[in-house]
Specification:
- With 596 residues, the chain is α+β, with helices and mostly antiparallel strands.
- The chain is 54% helix and 11% strand.
- It contains 26 helices and 16 strands.
- It has a five-stranded antiparallel sheet.
- α25 runs antiparallel to α26.
- The longest helix has 39 residues.
- 33% of the residues are buried.
- The structure holds zinc ion.
- Zinc ion (ZN) binds next to loops.
């Protein structure tokens, strides 16, 4: 057994996937909401028998390695290392792929840059000014250490001197990390490259596993004309839309609270953390991305968004809220009244901030309040404006009871009857949705009815292990080549082994049949698959349907020959007889189906 096989055999896939996706037992299999696409009814299936998973919504599927690679967006090698560690298998030899070693190199470079900046801020004369500034802003020494804040020196090549001069990295690698920028002008006196971050307070940005993937650099002097923040550009390891700062540190707290507070900047997150709101993450800008929502969903069900009161009318924020809502997160909103952001509130009045957090308001109340603040709602014209803003929001609430509660609230506040609002909601649903759909649903793979029936038939037989039906009588009915071959292999297997084991049988199959075989274990029959009577009846029913399909096809062809042949065939007794026979067969099949 090779090491990959050994690791695979040591993992209980259901338990492993349950760590990130809540699964429920459904017959032989387990079911849950797919973590890879947005859905409200589960189409994500895990088969303990076959140790595989598959989503019938987005068609993704695989084994434990595939799941880990997909959910963590990592390469095979990294998944291998993680699972080896988890199962206690010591890897003998493993050569990472090129893109994997590339990413590893970027993690190292970013890590070292972080250490360099951190050292300068805390221990070096060059960082004194920055250190005083940040301490004065109320960030404690402890926090600086915890979040590894740093200082990028006011030099064009400070970081290069360290990483190239001392650590021996190539400038090309540094460029890939986004830490330095290439200069087009080749006559440039200093260097062909210069540091991206200069004279800035540095926040290292890590993924949720703790790899430093990039930086946010903040100016010290708010009066300077430069951009307040400079960030690492998109690189092989840094994707702005994925990042939640500092999830690697706060994820345990978020899990414990089953809630994440989402703020807009790194300092907001650190200040909140300092005063005890430790389940916090920061995003860039005011809209949660789909990736961020999914990532949060792995750690909690509730999200409290700290938003400016005026963002309710802002489409980008509303879209973010809609995305998070679709992901299935429960959304609340924390508004800060007199303070401009959580950082300021935490510095000036920590208790007030905590109180606002505890009193966070449902997202729908927030929308309604905000619309009334802006449009008053006294005149008919103002009421109309409020309706125009709120109706599309309410129309998207999936839960009818919740929807009704807010319809009632809105009607009370507008002093109109509920029917008027319901009517508007119906109108707005009929119109195309105001916001574009999050993601196109991939079209179902087109399969012929006969193939679907064959799949269903074989799934019934394999899952119930009622092989007699197949081996002794019905081999001929299978027309799909892959399933024909699997049936042949099954015959051979059953001749040499007394007992059928899905796992051992799998190993006897050639590689090109393995996918088709796995599919048979992913069709969900619920508890009924253990009910012998049901299985027997279902097998008979499916057989009749398959046969009916064959006879109908035969009849269709015969009739078309008769038609095309015109006069020559007009009195062909053989064909006439065949049509009669086939019609009789169809009648018999129909009777048999009714008798079941
Ligand atoms: Zn899916």
């Amino acid at each position: 057994m090779d090491q990959i096989e050994e690791i695979r055999s040591k993992i209980d896939l259901v338990a492993f996937i349950s760590e990130t996706v809540p699964l429920k037992k459904a017959g032989r299999n387990f079911k849950g909401l797919c973590p890879f696409h947005t859905e409200k009814t589960p189409s994500f299936i895990v088969s303990p028998e076959r140790q595989i998973w598959k989503c019938f919504g987005c068609q993704k599927g695989g084994d434990a390695f595939g799941f880990l690679m997909e959910i963590e967006r990592i390469e095979f090698g990294e998944a291998l290392r993680i699972l080896a560690k988890k199962t206690g298998v010591v890897l003998q030899s493993y050569r990472p792929s090129q893109s994997e070693s590339e990413k590893d190199k970027l993690y190292q470079i970013n890590h070292l840059a972080g250490e360099f900046f951190h050292y300068l801020l805390l221990n070096h004369q060059a960082g004194k000014k920055a250190l005083n500034y940040i301490l004065q802003r109320g960030i404690s020494k402890q926090s600086l250490e915890k979040f590894k804040l740093g200082y990028a020196p006011a030099m064009w090549d400070g970081l290069q001197r360290f990483l190239v001069g001392k650590k021996g990295y190539k400038v090309e690698d540094l460029e890939k990390s986004g830490l330095i920028i290439a200069v087009d002008d080749k006559r440039s006196a200093i260097s062909r490259y210069y540091d991206r971050f200069r004279d800035r307070l540095m926040f290292p940005l890590s993924d949720h596993r703790g790899n430093v993937v990039g930086f946010a650099g903040r100016v010290l002097d708010p009066e300077v004309k430069e951009a307040k923040y400079v960030n690492t550009p998109e690189t092989a390891v840094y994707h702005k839309s994925d990042l939640l700062f500092p999830l690697d540190i706060t994820k345990e707290e978020i899990k414990k609270e089953n809630c994440a507070i989402v703020v807009e900047g790194e300092l907001d997150a650190i200040s909140s953390y300092q005063v005890g709101l430790k389940n916090v993450v920061a995003i860039k800008g005011s809209a949660l991305s789909e990736e961020q929502s999914r990532l949060l969903k792995r750690f909690c069900e509730n999200v409290v968004l700290s938003l400016d009161a005026d963002v309710a009318g802002d489409m980008a924020s509303r879209r973010g809220i809609e995305i998070a809502d679709k992901t299935g997160l429960n959304l609340k909103v924390l508004t800060l009244g007199k303070y401009k952001d959580p950082d300021e509130a935490a510095q000036k009045e920590p208790d007030y901030l905590k109180q606002r957090y505890n009193q966070a308001q449902s997202i729908y109340d927030f929308f309604i309040d905000s619309a009334f603040k802006r449009y008053r709602g006294a005149t008919a014209e103002e009421k109309k404006k409020i309706g125009q803003e709120i109706v599309p929001v309410l129309s998207k609430i999936e839960d009818e009871i919740v929807k009704n509660v807010y319809v009632k609230k809105l009607s009370d506040r507008l002093e109109v009857n509920e029917e008027a609002i319901i009517l508007q909601i119906e109108k707005s649903v009929q119109k195309s949705p105001v916001l574009p759909a999050v993601k196109p649903i991939s079209p179902p793979t087109v399969k012929s009815r006969s193939l679907l029936l064959e799949e269903y038939f074989l799934a019934l037989i394999f899952q119930s292990k009622q092989f007699d039906e197949l081996i002794k009588k019905e081999k001929v009915m299978i027309s799909e080549p892959a399933y024909q071959k699997i049936t042949q292999y099954l015959g051979d297997y059953l001749q040499s082994s007394k007992k059928f084991s899905p796992q051992f049988f799998f190993k006897t199959l050639p590689a090109e049949l393995k996918d088709a075989y796995d599919k048979l274990y992913l069709i969900d029959f619920g508890e009924r698959i253990d009910d012998e009577d049901w299985v027997a009846r279902e097998i008979q029913k499916t057989k009749i349907l398959m046969e009916t399909l064959l006879v109908k096809e035969d009849l269709r062809q015969t009739l078309s020959v008769l038609k095309q042949g015109g006069k020559d065939q007009a009195n062909n007794p053989d064909l006439d007889q065949k049509v009669l026979n086939l019609t009789k067969k169809l009648n018999d099949l129909e009777k048999r189906a009714l008798a079941l």
